[in-house]
Design a protein that fits this description.
The structure holds 2 protein chains of 2 kinds. Chain A is α/β, with parallel strands linked by helices. Helix content of chain A is about 30%, strand content about 25%. Chain A is built from 7 helices and 11 strands. A 9-stranded mixed sheet of chain A has the order 9-8-7-10-6-1-4-5-11, with helices on both faces. Chain A has a two-stranded antiparallel sheet with strand order 2-3. The longest helix of chain A is centred in the N-terminal third of the chain and has 15 residues. In chain B, the strands form 2 sheets. In chain B, strands 3, 4, 5, 6, 7, 8 and 9 form a 7-stranded mixed sheet that branches. Chain B has a two-stranded antiparallel sheet with strand order 1-2. Chain B has 18 helices and 9 strands. In chain B, helix 10 runs antiparallel to helix 12 and helix 10 crosses helix 15. In chain B, about 55% of the residues lie in helices and about 10% in strands. In chain B, strand 4 and strand 5 form a beta hairpin. Chain B is globular. Classes of the chains: A alpha/beta, B alpha+beta.
C-alpha cells in the first residue's frame, strides 16, 4: 500500500529542484595584471562578477521555474566572503530561491576543481536536486573540469557544453556544442548540465526581484565543515606576462626564409 | 561579455568597428557615495547599502549593453506621419526592457507603486543612462518629471488615477509649455482652458511647440502637462494654470478611448537629439483636468522644471563622460609623432598621442571636469533628498535654500562646460573627430541643446544672480560660501591639500564680494544683473568645482594614509586636482573682472551700429 502511494506521488509529482553552481571571477573587462611576487594575478580591489557562463546557468534554471518544470532553485558557490555579493546580485536577485556559500577564508583563497567537485557532491547530497546546472568553465582558470568530475562522483548523467536543453519527465533532450558540430543526445535524470554561450541570453535583474533578494535565505558554511581537504595539489611556480611580441624580420630570399623556419623557429 | 561575444559575430566590416563603447564609472560613484559625500549618513536606515550596490551594478549593465549600442542609430531621427511617429530602431524595445526591470519606479513613493529609493540613487541611474544614450533617456526622463510635478501639486483624484501607470512606465509624460511666441517668456502663453461645465474637466485649446518626446508608439497613453489660461485669468505668468491632458481620455472603468484627445501635427528637424520626437502639439478643445489650483500653474510646473534642470546638469556630465572615454581610448592607441622627451614606444612607428602634453592637457581638462561634475551632482541630489526627509521647517528651509542656489549653477555651468569638453573630445581625434562613424561629433550636437532648453544659460544665470542671490539679499550664497570656508578651516592641517584649500578659500570669499558689489551696483543700474550674470555664473561654477575637488582630495589623502590596495585611483585624484587648480581655476580671474565691467560697454552702442552699414 505504501509502495503504491509512493508510486502515485512519484508519477504525479513534478516538483523538481535545481541546484546552480556559480563562481566569483575577475570581470572579463578587467585588464588582468601579474602580481609583483609573480605567484598570481592582482585580485585586490579589482572588479569581480559572476562567471558569465554561470549567469547562463542561472538564467536556464529561472526559465525552467517559469515553465513550471522546477519549483525551487538553490544556488551554491565556493568562495571568500565577497562571494555573498555574487550570490545576492546574480542569483537571488534573478529569481533563485535560496543560496549557499561555502566560505573560504579569503577572497583570493585558491581552490582546485577536484576539491570544488567534492564539495559540490556534499551539497548535492544535502540539497537533493534533480539536476545541477553550471557554466561550462570559469573564465579565470578555464579548467572545464568541475561539471564532469561532479557527474562522475555522483554517478549521474552529464550534459556538457549545452546549446539547448529540454526536460520531459525523468529525461532531458540536449544539444552539445562540440569542435566537430552539434551533438544531440537524450540523457536520463539526475544529471549535471554545463552551459555554453548560445544556450540563452541572461536577463537583467528586475528591481522588485532585487528588493526581494534581501529577504531570501543565504546560508554560509565554513569550508572546514565540509570535511573536504581543499589544500591545493598543485604549486604555482611562476605567473608571468606572455613575452612581448618581437619585431618581425624581413628576409631577402626564400632560402633565407626556409633557413630561419628550420633553425630559428624550428617549425620545419 | 556575452553581448560582446554575440555582437562580434554580427559586425559587418571596418566601419562598424568605429562605434562607441561606454563603461559606467561604478568605482567613482562608490568613491563619492562612501568617501566624499557620505550618502549613508543621510539615507534612512531602510536603504540598504548592499541593495543599492546591486542596483547600481544592474543599471550599469543595462546602460552599457542595451542603451549605448543604440545611441548612434538615434541620430537617424524619427519619422512623422499623420497617424504616428516612428522612433529609432530598438528604442521601443529598450523602453520595454527598462520598464520590465522596474527602473521607472525606482524613486517614486511606495504609495503609487514605487520603490521609494532616494533621489541620489536615482541620480546614478540618470547618470549612466545619460552617458550611454541621453536622447533615449529623454523619454523616461520627462515622465519622471511629470510624476514629480503631480506628486507635489496634483489633487488626490488625479494622483490616484494617473500616477500608478506613470510610475511603472506604462504611460509616459511630457511638459507642454512653449508656444511659437512664448519660450523664455512664458508670460505671453496664449493657450486657453474653458470649464466643460461638469465641474471636473476643461477644454484646452492651443498650439505647443518644442515638445520633446511628445508622441511615440511606446505606450498605450501619454500624459501631457499643459500650461494654459482660464477665462478671466490675469495677464502674465500670474494667470497661467496647469492642466493634465491625456493623449487618450481615460474612461471611468480605466479603459482608454480610441480617438486621440490631441495631435502631434509635425516634428522638428534638429541639430541634435534627433531621436527625440520634438513635436508640435495641437490641442483643440482637448479634455483635461486642472492639476492643482487655478492660476498657480507656473509654481506647479516648477516642480517639473527644477527636477529637469538638475537632470540637464546630469546630461552635461553624461555627454562629457562618453566623449572622454572615447577620446582616452583613442589617445592610448593612435600613433603620431614622438614625445618631446624622447620616444616612448620605441618598437612602434610613432608614439601613442597620449604622450603629448597638448593631448594630456585636453584629457586632463575633460577628466577634471567630469569627476568634479559627478561630485557636484551627487552632492546636490543629496540636498534634494534632504528636502524630502527634512525633520523640521528649519532643516527644510536650509536645504531648499542650498538647492535653489545650486540648481541654476548645475544647469548652466555643467551644460556650457560640457559642450567645451565634448568639443575637446573631437579635437583629440583630429580629423577623424569630424567623421560621423566615430560618434564624437554626434555627442557635441546632442549636447548643444542642454544650454538652450529648460531655461537658456542666460535665463539660468539671471535666476542665479537676480533671484536666488539678489532677491534673497545674498543669504543663501553667504550660507553656502560659509559651508565651503568651514570645510577649508577644518582641513587646514592637511598639508598635502593646503595650497588648494587656500585657493578655494580665496575663491569663496571673492565670490561673496563680487555678488555683494553687483547687488549694490544693480540698485542704481537695472542693466547690471543681466550684464554680469553669465560671467558670474561661470565664476560660481568654477568655485563650486574647486570645493568639490578639495573634498575629493581630502578623501583621497585619508584613503592613501590607510594604505589601500589601489593607491593609483586615489593618487590620480590628487594629480587631476593639481591640473584643475593650476590650469582651470585661473579662468576665475577673467570672469571676476569681466562680470564687473561697466554696463556702458554693452549699452552705449546704437542698435543700428551693430552692422557695418552694408
Amino acid at each position: 500500500c505504501n509502495h503504491f502511494f509512493a508510486l502515485l506521488q512519484d508519477l504525479s509529482s513534478h516538483k523538481m529542484k535545481a541546484l546552480v553552481a556559480l563562481k566569483r571571477v575577475i570581470d572579463y573587462t578587467v585588464k588582468v595584471r601579474v602580481r609583483p611576487d609573480k605567484l598570481g594575478v592582482v585580485k585586490d580591489n579589482v572588479k569581480h562578477s559572476c562567471n558569465p557562463f554561470d549567469e547562463i546557468a542561472v538564467e536556464q534554471a529561472v526559465r525552467f521555474k517559469e515553465a513550471k518544470k522546477v519549483t525551487e532553485i538553490v544556488a551554491v558557490s565556493v568562495g571568500g566572503p565577497k562571494t555573498v555579493e555574487i550570490l545576492r546580485g546574480s542569483a537571488l536577485a534573478l529569481g533563485v530561491d535560496k543560496a549557499i556559500l561555502i566560505k573560504l577564508p579569503k577572497d583570493d583563497s585558491e581552490v582546485e576543481p577536484l576539491a570544488v567537485a567534492k564539495i559540490l557532491k556534499g551539497i548535492v547530497e544535502k540539497v537533493k536536486p534533480d539536476f545541477v546546472l553550471t557554466g561550462k568553465q570559469a573564465i579565470d582558470d578555464d579548467s572545464c573540469a568541475v561539471p564532469q568530475m561532479l557527474a562522475s562522483m555522483l554517478g549521474w548523467s552529464q550534459g556538457t557544453f549545452l546549446s539547448s536543453v529540454a526536460i520531459e519527465g525523468k529525461a532531458a533532450t540536449i544539444s552539445r556544442e562540440t569542435d566537430v558540430g552539434i551533438q544531440k543526445l537524450e540523457i536520463k535524470l539526475p544529471a549535471v548540465f554545463s552551459c555554453d554561450l548560445r544556450l540563452n541570453e541572461p536577463r537583467y535583474a528586475k528591481l522588485p526581484e532585487i528588493m526581494k533578494a534581501k529577504k531570501k535565505p543565504l546560508e554560509e558554511i565554513d569550508v572546514a565543515k565540509t570535511g573536504v581537504d581543499v589544500t591545493p595539489r598543485l604549486q604555482i611556480v611562476q605567473v608571468s606576462d606572455p613575452p612581448t611580441r618581437a619585431a618581425g624580420k624581413k628576409v631577402k630570399t626564400a632560402d633565407e626564409l626556409v633557413d630561419k623556419l628550420k633553425n630559428e623557429a624550428k617549425v620545419l | 561579455m556575452l553581448s560582446t561575444l554575440r555582437n562580434v559575430s554580427g559586425i559587418a566590416g571596418p566601419r562598424a568597428m568605429r562605434s562607441m563603447t561606454y563603461k559606467a564609472p561604478v568605482r567613482d560613484v562608490k568613491f563619492i557615495f562612501d568617501e566624499v559625500v557620505n550618502v549613508w549618513k543621510t539615507f534612512p536606515d531602510t536603504v540598504a547599502q548592499d541593495t543599492v550596490e546591486i542596483i547600481i551594478k544592474e543599471m550599469a549593465k543595462f546602460a552599457e549593453n542595451t542603451l549605448n549600442p543604440i545611441y548612434q542609430v538615434g541620430d537617424e531621427g524619427c519619422k512623422w506621419s499623420p497617424t504616428k511617429i516612428d522612433t529609432p530602431p530598438k528604442w521601443n524595445e529598450a523602453y520595454k526592457a527598462y520598464c520590465e526591470a522596474g527602473w521607472p519606479s525606482l524613486p517614486a513613493p511606495e504609495e503609487y507603486g514605487g520603490q521609494g529609493f532616494p533621489l541620489t540613487v536615482d541620480a546614478v541611474k540618470k547618470e549612466f543612462c545619460a552617458a550611454a544614450n541621453w536622447t533615449w533617456y529623454m523619454y523616461p526622463m520627462l515622465s519622471h518629471g511629470a510624476v514629480e510635478c503631480l506628486l507635489a501639486h496634483g489633487i488626490k483624484e488625479l494622483k490616484d488615477r494617473f500616477l500608478p501607470k506613470m510610475t511603472s512606465g506604462e504611460w509616459t509624460g511630457t511638459m507642454c509649455l512653449t508656444e511659437p511666441q512664448a519660450g523664455s517668456d512664458l508670460g505671453v502663453v496664449k493657450s486657453t482652458a474653458k470649464p466643460s461645465g461638469d465641474g471636473k474637466t476643461y477644454k484646452i485649446s492651443g498650439t505647443k511647440i518644442f515638445i520633446s518626446c511628445g508622441d511615440h508608439q511606446w505606450t498605450s497613453n501619454i500624459i501631457h502637462l499643459v500650461l494654459a489660461r482660464l477665462p478671466d485669468a490675469p495677464s502674465g505668468t500670474k494667470g497661467i494654470s496647469l492642466f493634465l491632458v491625456p493623449k487618450y481620455k481615460v474612461k471611468d472603468d480605466g479603459s482608454l478611448e480610441t480617438k486621440p484627445n490631441c495631435a502631434c501635427v509635425g516634428i522638428e528637424h534638429k541639430m541634435g537629439i534627433k531621436g527625440s520626437a520634438t513635436c508640435v502639439m495641437s490641442f483643440e478643445d482637448s479634455e483635461g483636468y486642472l492639476v492643482g489650483k487655478p492660476n498657480n500653474g507656473m509654481r506647479e510646473m516648477f516642480a517639473f522644471m527644477n527636477a529637469a534642470r538638475l537632470t540637464v546638469g546630469i546630461q552635461g556630465l553624461g555627454h562629457a563622460e562618453l566623449s572622454y572615454q572615447q577620446a582616452l581610448g583613442y589617445a592610448r592607441e593612435r600613433l603620431s609623432g614622438r614625445a618631446p622627451t624622447g620616444a616612448v614606444a620605441k618598437d612602434k612607428m610613432a608614439d601613442p598621442i597620449i604622450v603629448h602634453p597638448d593631448v594630456r592637457r585636453m584629457l586632463l581638462k575633460m577628466k577634471s571636469f567630469t569627476e568634479a561634475a559627478r561630485c557636484f551632482i551627487y552632492h546636490t541630489s543629496l540636498i534634494e533628498d534632504k528636502c524630502r526627509w527634512a525633520k523640521d521647517e528649519k532643516e527644510l528651509h536650509k536645504a531648499e535654500g542650498e538647492l535653489g542656489l545650486l540648481t541654476p549653477i548645475i544647469k548652466a555651468f555643467l551644460s556650457e562646460t560640457s559642450f567645451e569638453i565634448c568639443n575637446d573630445g573631437i579635437q583629440i581625434y583630429g580629423g577623424h573627430g569630424f567623421i560621423k562613424e566615430w560618434g564624437l561629433e554626434q555627442i557635441v550636437r546632442d549636447c548643444r541643446i542642454s544650454m538652450l532648453y529648460e531655461g537658456t544659460t542666460g535665463i539660468q544665470s539671471f535666476d542665479l544672480l537676480g533671484r536666488k542671490i539678489m532677491m534673497n539679499k545674498g543669504k543663501d550664497l553667504v550660507l553656502f560660501a560659509n559651508q565651503i570656508l568651514t570645510f577649508c578651516q577644518m582641513n587646514m592641517g592637511n598639508v598635502q591639500v593646503l595650497p588648494h584649500i587656500l585657493q578655494t578659500m580665496k575663491l569663496a570669499t571673492e565670490w561673496v564680494e563680487i555678488a555683494g558689489g553687483l547687488m549694490m551696483a544693480a540698485q542704481k543700474d537695472p542693466n547690471v544683473l543681466q550684464s554680469a550674470a553669465v560671467d558670474f555664473m561661470y565664476y560660481s561654477g568654477y568655485t563650486v568645482f574647486a570645493y568639490m575637488w578639495i573634498r575629493m582630495e581630502v578623501a583621497a589623502t585619508k584613503a592613501l594614509a590607510a594604505k589601500p590596495a589601489d593607491p593609483e585611483f586615489y593618487q590620480a585624484k590628487l594629480q587631476t586636482a593639481d591640473f584643475f587648480f593650476s590650469r582651470m581655476v585661473p579662468r576665475t580671474k577673467a570672469y571676476a573682472t569681466s562680470c564687473r565691467a561697466p554696463t556702458k560697454v554693452l549699452t552705449q552702442m546704437k542698435d543700428s551700429s551693430f552692422d557695418l552699414g552694408y
